[in-house]
Write a structure and sequence with these properties.
There is one protein chain. The protein has helices at about 10-45, 50-60, 70-110, 115-150, 155-175, 180-190, 190-205, 205-230, 240-280. The protein is mainly α. The protein has one domain (about 10-280).
């Protein structure tokens, strides 16, 4: 099946149609990945006693006004620790969902059926390579951002701003250029560095449309998650505050897994178009 370059609206439409066909395997995969992430997050909050600080903030915020800043910081430290663990668990789950979704959409684009078991096995095989590629891409962007942040220490406001912007631009460009690495890694079966360089090559000349597309899809996904959490908010009044917050968090994480799969599917549709523009037509997806 040959795929040619498509206009912006058709890419969105193709992504939505793929989601409609693949919702069963993607739903099961996202839940399999994010339910453990939710359990780990709840265990982290309970083990660090972060819920106690949250309980205090929500039930008696006025009491914090009488405490010194260093005491409040010490009390909030478990919350920061638990949040870091939860964030890491969600990142690991997101990578698995991304790799599985890329594979599912690529298989679907060839006219074949993609089963949940098959895409999860594929994601597991590519997962170690994905961890390395993700670490390399994140390190590249954050190292440049770190240098940009150091520039803010320059006494001159003008020079500090100039240095910050001088490094911020390359960091943003690199982040956008590497945005297709997970799709390349999953669909083409490349290694970490090869996936990153391939992504940069595919995005070259299409940086602004690529970033705009991903920002639009990400914004829609963020709005969807917020709406789902808003609907789940009444659960916070079940039992004590800690139990209520835990229930809201579980619902939110389950919804987040589904939204992550949706964003990954749209990203795959964009990757396929970038590849079609670079190669003329694409006929060997998910080979």
């Amino acid at each position: 099946m040959e795929i040619s370059p498509r206009p912006f609206g058709q890419i969105l439409g193709d992504g939505m149609q793929a989601l409609a066909r693949l919702w069963r395997p993607l739903l099961s995969t996202s839940l399999i990945a994010f339910v453990p992430a939710g359990v780990i997050s709840l265990m982290a909050f309970n083990a660090t006693n972060a819920n106690e600080f949250l309980d205090l903030v929500l039930s008696d915020p006025e009491s914090l006004n009488t405490l010194p800043a260093e005491v409040i910081l010490e009390m909030a430290t478990p919350l920061f620790q638990a949040a870091a663990i939860a964030f890491g668990a969600q990142l690991l789950a997101s990578l698995f969902v991304y790799l599985a979704t890329h594979r599912a959409v690529a298989v679907d684009a060839t006219g074949q059926a993609a089963s949940g078991a098959e895409i999860r096995r594929w994601a597991l095989r590519r997962y170690p390579v994905g961890l390395v590629a993700g670490a390399l891409s994140a390190a590249a962007v954050f190292s440049i951002m770190f240098v940009a942040t150091l520039g803010l220490a320059i006494p001159s406001v003008f020079m500090a701003t100039l240095v910050f912007l001088a490094f911020l631009g390359p960091a943003l460009w690199l982040g956008g250029a590497m945005s297709m690495w997970s799709a390349v890694l999953s669909v083409e079966g490349r290694g970490p560095l090869s996936s990153i360089t391939r992504s940069i090559d595919l995005v070259r000349g299409r940086w602004w449309p690529t970033v705009g597309f991903l920002m639009l899809v990400g914004l829609l996904g963020s709005v969807a998650v917020q709406l789902i959490q808003l609907v789940a908010l009444p659960l916070s009044f079940i039992g004590d505050i800690g139990v209520g917050i835990s229930l809201v968090a579980i619902v939110g994480l389950a919804a987040q897994g589904v939204i992550v799969a949706g964003i990954a599917a749209m990203s795959t549709a964009w990757y396929i178009d970038l590849r079609a523009r670079r190669e003329g037509v694409v006929s060997d997806l998910a080979s």
